Amino acid sequence: MSSRQSDRREFLKRGAALAGGLGLAAAKPASAQLPDPEGMIVGTDDLVAYGKRSRFEDSKRIPHGGRHSPDAFGLDFHIAAPLQESVGVITPSSLHYVGTTRGSYVPDIDPAKHRLMIHGLVDRELVFTMEELRRFPSVTRLHFIECAGNRSRSSHTTVQETHGMTSCAEWTGVLLSTLLEEAGVQDGGEWIVAEGVEEVKGASTIPVNKAMDDCILCYGMNGEAVRPQQGYPLRLLVPGFEGIFNVKWLRRIKVVDQYYMTYNDYGHLTQDPATAALGYQIGPKSVITFPSGSQRLPEPGFYEISGLAWSGGGKVARVEISTDGGRSWQDADIRGEPQPMAHTRFSMNWTWDGNECELQSRCTDELGQVQPSRAQVAAFWNQPPDQPVRVKGQDNSIQPWRIDSDGNVHNAII
Amino acid sequence: MRSFRFAGLLLLAVGVCAQAQSPTYGLGRAPTAEEVAAWDIAISPDGTELPAGSGTVAEGEELYVQKTCFVCHGLNGTGATAPRLIKRDVGEVDDPWDYGRVLPIRSPYATTVWDYINRGMPLGMEGTLTPDEVYSIVAYLLFLNDVIEEDMVLDQDSLPNIEMPNRNNFARVPDWFPGQPRLEGYPY
After folding, report:
1. How many domains does chain B have?
2. Whole-number mean pLDDT of chain B?
3. CATH superfamily assigned to domain A93-269
């Protein structure tokens, strides 16, 4: 035995004695002059197997959309992510927002029994097991998803209410194009219908151009299997398209020659071509997550303003911040390398002088699309000035936060 | 000579492959015809996937009670907890859109009504209705909304041919291409 191994063995022995003798959380060293932790977390088999966050962290999701989740029968409807406490760009899987077609039980699917069928206008109809899907060349990409109902209202008090129906995760899976090439899309195959297995079997019609461009059949999320609430064992990612297209518990893809007008598609039905277009691909959008509604700055002084920016049109190219209600703008720092159709963290060093002020952020994406103020939206569509602004399609308008002189932050949407 | 012939065969094989786009990975299996038929539940506007069967308004009226539709949707298709199923009482309108967001009147295609009831109703008992029952319930709802006559029989031929009032009265989603802004002329 080498001396290093022997040292290690000695250390382990002493460690075991320590754990056995001083296993109680309240044990404190007698000579402590330094600040102590509140106690020790006693190891358990469960914590060894799958860790959990500190008991001092309580960031949590909330029911959203005017209907409680779970309801009296255990169905979930809409659940919003706590963006006010978010750091970085990845939403932890446990905090990722949840949207459903009409309220849903979460299907409890045995992956060994799950199958994906690709059929319709293809040369070869195919059925895959999950094991087979995992054998294909994979991709891992950051992508946000956002619900069409992620719409800020003046009655909302926090960024979780105004913007919590979006999240961003690292998704792993097979490109849909890989499987469609394997099946061989025939002439006239202009659309796909993607369908899940939940009780309503939610189905959406997606252009084959998009299917072949960047859609992913995901079995992985943030380094582990996709969570049941997110579509375990297989979910479709349609980067930059509204949330409902990202079919969960995916079972079937049919290549078809026309727009199918499924019930999900019907949900987007409008008479206005502009609304139809603006409710399809998500526009350039951003929001300041700190300081944000219902938070409080304890005193004047230095703060880092921080927020998230994203666009369904590609990468975030620029984020600007205003601290004077949109009169003047400064470029924010982009933290990390922006990824296409992914949340991008931005920040700006700022010293608050203690006076009332209004913070805003504005995103420009790589296509040159610029996030509008609500006044700009109203002006563009000649909406009457005496009525509340209605943003057509998905709401990507600028979110204003007012900071009062007492440091309290409020939603400043009128 | 032999290798020359082999090269010729190879060329022939490559040519055939290119034409048929043979699979690269060879994973997965072909579904059986029965599997495809059982899974193929999304109904296109032209009704290709509609199953055999038929239904009437009278049968639909009975089923609306028997299958407990009325518990959530109300005895008259409104007034309860679930979305209303009868057009808003707005009298004669120029634009049928004004009847409201009510599936059996607003939907441009009767196939969407059939499809949704078949896949998603009744709540908690999805997938239990027979094709005949779905045809009948759709017939009843379309009759309630003055879309069809009381004596019409719905089946896989007649249902897709129903001219819904909003058949050509909605905005198509735009053609989508990578790297394309959301709406031409809209800077936001």
Report:
1. 1
2. 91
3. Oxidoreductase, molybdopterin-binding domain (3.90.420.10)
Domain range for B125: 52-161
How many Å lie between the alpha carbon of A322 and the closest alpha carbon of chain B? 18
Contact B28 A258 (CB under 8 A): no
Position A176 scores a pLDDT of 98
Give residue B10's pLDDT band: very low, low, confident or very high (50, 70, 90).
very low
List A residues 2-61 in contact with B (Cβ-Cβ < 8 A): none
DSSP A187-255: TT--EEEEEE-STT--EEEEEHHHHHHT-EEEEEETTEEPPGGGTTT-EEE-TTB-GGGS-SSEEEEEE
Q: What percent of chain A has pLDDT over 90?
A: 86
Ranges for all domains in chain A classified under CATH 2.60.40.650: 285-411
Taking only the tens place, the pLDDT of each residue in B81-125 is 999 999 999 999 999 999 999 999 999 999 999 999 999 999 999
Peptide bond into A228 cis (omega under 30): no
Q: Which residues contact A317 (CB under 8 A, 6 or more apart)?
A: A338, A364, A365, A366, A368
* ipTM confidence: 0.89
Among B23, B176, B187, the residue with its CB nearest the CB of A207 is: B176
Contact residues, chain B, for A268 at CB < 8 Å: 173
CATH number assigned to the domain comprising residue B128: 1.10.760.10
Please state, in angstroms and rounded to a whole number, the distance separating the CA atoms of residues A77 and A105. 9
Beta carbon pairs, A and B, within 8 Å: 168
Cα B139 to Cα B104: distance, rounded to the nearest angstrom: 10
Tell me which residue of A301, A260, A336, A356 sits closest to A90, measured CA to CA: A336
Q: Which CATH architecture has domain A285-411?
A: Sandwich (2.60)
